[in-house]
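dumping these here so i dont lose them again. two proteins, back to back, each one seq then structure tokens. dont judge the mess
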Amino acid sequence: MRPIILGICAAFFFAFTFILNRSMELAGGSWIWSASLRYFFMIPFLFIIVAARKNVTPLVKAMKQHPATWILWSFIGFGLFYAPLSFAAAYGRGWLIAGTWQVTIISGSLLAPLFYESVPTKNGFRKIRGKIPLRGLLFSMLILLGVLLLQLEQAKQLSIKYALLSVFPVLLASFAYPLGNRKMMQLCKGKLDVYQRVLGMTLASIPFWLLLSFYGVVTVGFPSGNQIFQSLLVAITSGVIATVLFFQATELVKDNMQQLAAVEATQSIEILFTLAGEMLVLHAPFPTTFSWVGISLVIIGMMLHSYVSRVKKLTFRRHLDL
């Protein structure tokens, strides 16, 4: 149950991304700086945490062993995740971006065959190729249905152009984030803790953010003071707190694709937190009765996803006791 709770807490802090990114766009800020500034600001906070735990040296050694691999999966897990999300904020409201992002629930499940998971036996554990958790995927579809209902009325007000420009980048991000995260967990093999891994991936993604920043200076100029401040808030809430919480949750269940999919499904709660945040900060309208039906489906899907995950874990333990 702990990984699920951590996932929900991460979803709360991740919601700041959608709210503040939309706020920056409405204030005239560029998505380029919304994306790159977050990762620049994350470095000192994460470095202080890792240094305080005296874990900088092991991280440096690990990154030196596979520098190209770190750069590749960090670019995918962080670069192809956050740049498209920030771009989408320029064309869609926070609730639409957060809602579309829930496709990651299914995306994460579909990635299972690319990885191996540990299966308990009487003689220990053995590795087998992951399978798409069909039952969990069914509950993921229920969550996604709830999200679609939640957005249906507002989505009718968008033009096709704006809908596509806010949807397709998020679809790309929904696959990139869990893929990069899982590949880095596979590479680290439990030798690095969550803080080290997040700092390492942030540092390894810096070449991409530098290139994007250079493009930003040439095309839109430097960011305003307001955008710098809001990007700092995103870096702390979403970049540091939420990312560490989510990575910690996935680390706890990294060898079980069913439970891993359940943890990733907790991110569906982001849509609820984002709706509340937009109502308070950006004065978004109160959800209709139809939208509350969608919210109910999201909550029910979350509970069922968590239940199935726990049942499977208990079944494994009973099997080992036989």
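---- next one ----
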Amino acid sequence: MSEIATARPNIDKDLDDAARRLKDAKREIGSVIYGQENVIDKILITILSGGHVLLIGVPGLAKTLMVDTVARVMGLDSARIQCTPDLMPSDILGSEVLEEDEDGKRHFRFIEGPVFTQFLMADEINRASPRTQSALLQAMQEKSVTVAGKPHKLPHPFHVLATQNPIEQEGTYPLPEAQLDRFLMQIDVDYPGLAAEREMLLATTSNRRAEAKAVFEPADLEDLQKLVRDMPVGESVVEAILTLVRRGRPGDGAPDLVNEYVAWAPGPRAAQSLMLACRARALLDGRSAPSVDDVIDLAGPILKHRMALNYQARANGVTLWTIIDKMTEGL
């Protein structure tokens, strides 16, 4: 099996050191967040890949606490936006105000909004108006914002974690396809298991509250993200990613279910996201290279929000998970 080689010397030692520190980070996060190991892993994979994440879950599953804890452990500044229909773009990006100095001269001063942070949580993002949702589009893709015609660079690293409530849809605005494609991964947050919920119940109703400690600094995270991109990848993994993504596009070579039911297919950014996420998952697990199993495991979170079904699929009870499972067969 041929591999895409890396030019980084001593990469094996760097990978071992990074995996050890990431294990410490997971332990710190797990001391505060109970029963969401899979969700935490995928959030860390997204951050290591340099991307943004969309969390889907009902209220009360510790999504906000999860963001605060991950930010603290990774050494990142964080901010939170509660999205509502009357939220304006300036409430996120910031605005210019007219000031007068001691000499009586007037000038504009830019006041930064909450987007000027390293880890931004947009709570219930689908409650914001389309105009406000689009204000995040440039920030997520270009890591900068433009206010009054002037560009402003965002802090680095910069990550957005947005949440959605899958139950209550009244008064919401579904995210457009272009915005959804900016999220590297969509993660479904489920209820914790019995043992984890018992542990959480006892821990959160006492006077003793665990607090996670910082394991990384922002510069360390940037080094990890560079290490992910330097990780060698086997040709079999590259072929599996390309095969999977192209199977999701109706046409020659696609499964019958895709040809019959898929209305919107994943683009090249899906393959790029899979490549980075597979590397990051291998690093998190302490492996020196990703495998095809990583591709299969991450197919759902990375492809689900980049695909849409037609009305016939909904009428016949066909789900995206059914389609994606069919796409991963034989990889």
